[in-house]
Design brief:
4 copies of one chain form a homotetramer.
Chain A (H helix, E strand, L loop, with lengths): L4 E2 L4 E6 L5 E7 L9 H11 L17 E2 L3 E2 L2 E2 L4 E6 L21 H8 L15 H17 L3 E9 L2 E2 L18 H16 L6 E8 L13 H10 L4 E6 L10 H4 L3 E4 L2 E4 L7 E2 L2 E2 L4 E7 L9 E4 L5 E4 L10 H22 L5 H9 L1
Antiparallel strand pairs in A: 1-2, 2-3, 3-7, 4-7, 5-6, 8-9, 8-10, 10-16, 11-16, 12-13, 14-15, 17-18
Chain lengths: 364, 364, 364, 364
């Protein structure tokens, strides 16, 4: 119940703290025969890596992944894939002070309440570094989805008050903020500069879509595809809201506006609009899956804050160390990873839904 | 993987279709010794019952619950509690027509894609009646929480463009829309009347809080308390977005605004504000848990719609039958139930977090 | 964790006590499109029904099953199948006395220790009646297996010192002891008569095989097919040992005797012998699956016994009521049901093992 | 569903192949505050290590464990503990030949059937080396149990036809066969010498007990404590039968012999005998838990065997490489580990059984 395992069939277990020896993940339930290399996974990790821009913590980590098991002659064997990422830049000294007090907006207080004490070095398990294992596993999920013609793509939709107004997919990897709109990226950079000058931080929104998802994924009651996505994305630290399709705006819409009419096109059933974000009754409908994650501003700000210490005294603090003024750009690949993991699991889970297809499967 | 089970320790399995013989739920993992009666559960079901106002389907269902097992001499025994709710008002004739086509905004198309065919009577398992089992189970969870001093309370926050501007808890059960603001309820009723005249429907927002939740519930990675709540609430049909605490607005906030300072009060650690909605790092912090669910407008509208039939032809339809112009008021108790179920599960799950407390537990 | 759910994909949740209103089971994860009727399930329940012979409790229960959900127009819909079996012959008066003391060999003491009190009527949830739900669910699993060419067959291998020496499948249903050897059945009946005269009871062995199981089911580490079978069969009350293939005798064998040589026959790989019971490395090898369950003598004997009461006094008791002098014959269909459930689950679980087959599945 | 995770609350995920870079395990759900060191775990691994005697494979492996996460300042933090054991002596060359054929009694054929191909080096994931992760995790479970006054002890009960006739606990670690009877150990050594001369191998029995287990662990239906133990122990490669208490002999016993009378002793309820092996109705009764695992002879024998190759031809083979003539002594600590893991999980799972104790727990 300690909750470091995610997924039912395509299933990952992450481990590791910010300042431990290493972080990692065991990916279980990956079908046999999938080509996977360290380079494939590294490409995803590099997108999450700190130190990529002036808006990201200057901590330098190579985040170099090692495959320790489950791959033989370049292909998955159906046995668990153990991925390990050594920690190389642990400057624990920076953190010794925070052992004694509770940083606002952080998990310091709640960890102490739950466990009686905490690994205070860099936030321990509650650090953003925890997501390295998710991204490594998400890379494997993405390789699997790719073989089935499914593509997942995430990007920054907004930073503070600055929203993207156009979508150019190539642009996403051109700017340090992962925005698909170069002009918005410029404005967002200016906004972040101002935040940094004020020793403050900014939130933002990550949007993610998946194309090529077949109709039929997800289950109609508790394991709705949107429920699984919401739980997965909300489990990323700092996410405070999740929207599917039109999301929050449905509450102000009328049925006649919100319903997506069906129509035939080229012999296939399609929807004219996609307010639903590709999911009806918890099951994928064959159109684009669309979701958004709202991410809070980095709680580690350098301006003065009120808080209490472990001795129960009111104190005033100034946080030191290395912190991102915004975590949104680094969260992009994490949202993409979690989405890929949910879809991989749903694909496998769906295979037992119909007797006729099971019989065909075993007739071989 | 068919997903009709929810929870890990406090665990429910629901079953039943809109027009089958009955609906029900098996509640497993309820601690022994909890007083539970049919009347206790009925009180929750009555809040969900159709036909309560002119804004709810005129279908009449007593929704009378029977306890079939797991309770002996008025108390739970630790064995599974089977709750059964007979269906009494199945007018399947109304639905025979919809067997042949796909209603926009409904799960008709996706069920056919997943399973090859569907129980089309009243939406079958995808009907809102599916939530009766959730509410019955949520009643048991609420009785359990009550014994631990935890209280969950949900209400309508907005209907279409009409938002509550004040909070009077007593008012929630005074108006058919379950709004804690009598004046907003009047305006919302007027808005709904207009929707009905236009043969249209409305969405809205349900807000829910929980008081008395001890610090320490939830787990720091995939099983964050907010992740569990988000998955639980998004699994309710028609919910398209979930917010925790300040929710979507955090993405536009700065860290200095969004962080909740800690302070001492009467020897206890408290937060001055609660932007976080009572959860830090996925773990409850002892303050009020707060969430919001955005609910889409009822897809069954009486105006003309475009769609396709099972033969792959474009057609125009007008939906008949009995449908709520807004489902928000009836969803209130469902959101409350899912929240109670998540908290009950988290309470039990948390008991194994610390060696010192386990030793004390078994020292008895 | 209360453990009334079994299986991962093909998944059942049972409920009900010996003297409650009813017993039942929710069968989730059954593929859509499987023809299932009440009569199909009743045929299995009738094999477990009490009162079938003089070696079985005279309690009369019709054990008439009702399908409450999940079947539409005679076929499963992919949604949960709720099966209910009313209790009709609860003579609780018989049991009031046992509320005060702990019957040797029963769960009275351990229930009180775990839950603080117990539903003492007929053993409550620890009664053999609990297996009615397993058998009803096992019937559905068997119908599913049948569509895939898999047949499960269980029978009494021995009663006390009397062992079957030949195997005639037709004979199994010809004698009240479910033995495939008519002569052994006669000798066993005589042995049981003698037990009953002595106010004593007898144990025995149930054997079960499955034919037509494809190679590849089961997973290599914790979810070995034999581990799943052992857990499933040991979860039947009164089972104290489980053997796979040659079972206990392997511990005295040499490798040269115990290994099953492979050979080609008609273009297929076969084994010359089957000491392994159809499972190698936890995975089915395509030959017959074979297991045995060792069942203890009924603990409810009518002779005088020593025990203690709830007040902590040593006492002497004589158990009254209705009890089987041997439970082995009624356990036969329960072992068959649990085996069928494990195989159904393993079949569905195995579908995601290979990328090539998944791609083929979704190419449709 | 790939089944490399075991346990529900105290939960382990193992990974690694015989000839990969390393093996390991992630132990999740360990309560915070438990002192754990590499030396503590190493002591368990050393008992499993190959090369300890002439009856064990001469492969040399240090099996030196590293703690990579989850332990801070010598104590568990409540976050996942990642344990890694590098492989140092992979002589894959020995195994290249077996890529082309199926060794009798091994998982070669079934892996190929399930996954389409296999990591043939040393048996890959089906190697006995897979158990290293179990033992490392079992060490952590044992440390936890120790804090609660529970002690688990396993030993060799028999090798081939040679049975222990006395029990001297100190003797277990004095002889290479882990037998608690020095004279039986001598006879067993002689028997094994003879097996080795004949290029053959031997099976045997491991017995395991647990003292200090409180009454109340285990759940009454599918998650009976004995069912969990049977599944756990049967999941160890080469185990073909599991017995609880009197095990297989109950099938020949009468009720009057098999029932354990209760009696008062020093104000506590006790049983006069323990045929039940410490479990009644699936729940621990406070007396000694006792089980036995029957282990087949090592399938890798050096004498000539018949089999088939991947091209579907009948062939004759002689297995080369490094193999134990008996695996029983090395399986002893594996059985102990699995038993400890089941008990640790049952202890945590049981904490939510009673409302009165939950209220007391949270009253703090």
């Amino acid at each position: 119940m300690a909750g470091n395992t995610f997924g039912k069939i395509f299933r990952i277990t992450t481990w590791g703290e910010s300042h431990g020896k290493a972080l990692g993940v065991v990916v279980d339930g990956v079908p046999a025969g999938l080509p996977v290399s360290e380079a494939d996974i590294q490409a995803f990790l590099d997108r999450r890596k700190p130190g990529a821009s002036r808006f990201s913590t200057p901590r330098k980590e190579a985040d170099a992944v090692q495959i320790l098991s489950g791959v033989f002659e370049g292909k998955t064997t159906g046995t668990p894939i153990s991925l390990l990422i050594p920690n190389t830049s642990q400057r624990s000294a920076d953190y010794s002070e925070i052992a004694s007090y509770y940083r606002p907006g952080h998990a310091d207080y709640t960890f102490d309440q739950k466990y009686g004490f905490r690994d205070y070095r860099g936030g321990g398990r509650s650090s953003g570094r925890e997501t390295a294992g998710r991204v490594a596993a998400g890379a494997v999920a993405s390789l699997f989805l790719d073989r089935l013609g499914i593509r997942v793509c995430a990007y920054t939709k907004s930073i503070g008050p600055v929203f993207c107004e156009r979508f150019c997919e190539e642009e996403i990897r051109n700017n340090p903020l992962c925005m698909p709109d170069a002009q918005a990226a410029c404005r967002a950079e200016a906004y972040l500069e101002e935040c940094m000058e004020r020793q403050d931080s900014s939130g933002g929104v990550v949007e993610c879509f998946a194309d090529g998802v077949p109709a039929g994924l997800g289950d109609p009651v508790f394991d709705k595809l949107d429920a699984a996505l919401a739980g997965a994305v909300m489990s990323i630290g700092a996410v405070k809201a999740v929207e599917i399709g039109d999301g929050t705006s449905v509450s102000r819409a009328r049925g006649s506006e919100n319903n997506d009419p069906f129509r035939m096109r080229n012999g296939h059933v399609e929807k004219e609009t996609n307010h639903a974000g590709g999911i009806l009754g918890g099951i994928s409908d064959g159109s684009r899956i669309l979701l958004r994650a709202h991410i809070k501003p980095t709680p580690s700000i350098f301006s003065e804050q009120q808080t209490v210490n472990r001795d129960g005294e009111d104190i005033t603090i100034r946080i030191k160390g290395r912190h991102d003024p915004v975590i949104v750009p680094r969260a992009v690949v994490v949202v993409e990873a979690m989405t890929a993991l949910v879809l991989a699991d749903a694909l496998l889970s769906n295979m037992g839904a119909r007797l006729d297809r099971i019989r065909e499967f075993y007739r071989r």
